[in-house]
Amino acid sequence: xxxxxxxxxxxxxxxxxxxxxxxxxxxxxxxxxxxxxxxxxxxxxxxxxxxxxxxxxxxxxxxxxxxxxxxxxxxxxxxxxxxxxxxxxxxxxxxxxxxxxx
Amino acid sequence: xxxxxxxxxxxxxxxxxxxxxxxxxxxxxxxxxxxxxxxxxxxxxxxxxxxxxxxxxxxxxxxxxxxxxxxxxxxxxxxxxxxxxxxxxxxxxxxxxxxxxxxxxxxxxxxxxxxxxxxxxxxxxxxxxxxxxxxxxxxxxxxxxxxxxxxxxxxxxxxxxxxxxxxxx
Lengths: 102, 169
Description:
The complex is a heterodimer. Chain A is an all-alpha fold. Helix content of chain A is 75%, strand content 0%.
């Protein structure tokens, strides 16, 4: 079987790609796409740690399931906010959403 | 190299490549479709890790629900999906630097860990991961409380999403 290091480096690379997307994209929907990549990288780590340690301790898989639920909650609220902002301001560019700035 | 290592290599390269396309493509519909490819690669990685249930849930929940929700959101905000103008902000090089530094830091931290090169033992024969997962999710000695809290969070998030996106005339 593949050593654990490969999965951890794979997840770290996916996390960094997602972080890059969150930091540089201007469109708010694209920022949420980056967040999804980061959540998936975390999930790969959780499942890999489950498989490479005691397989009878299900904590890794249980928390992967909980991350699924949290990701679904995050995406539904995030996209609702984006759509609501688009309706009021007619833009989804994150730089233009500066109503909270002094 | 064994067959499993070759499959892992192909899946990892495919997933990382489509992940890069997600964050760099100009057209957002294409970015959402590349996200579907990335999520599918991650599902294959779960299957390689013998987490069959998680792999199926990845396909059903992530690809079936979340990615489709993204495509809906992209289409509902279509006027800003124009391909003109920069899709990245001015400080994209700083973002790339931070992402590279995070990757280097994670690689450095992980390579110093003693369990880094650990290999997995074969699963015991007749091992029932789905049954154990189901028991762990509802057993009071295990994770019933986080599980219920997650379901309450999901309900609150869905009610909140409907409230936020509701169109008051």
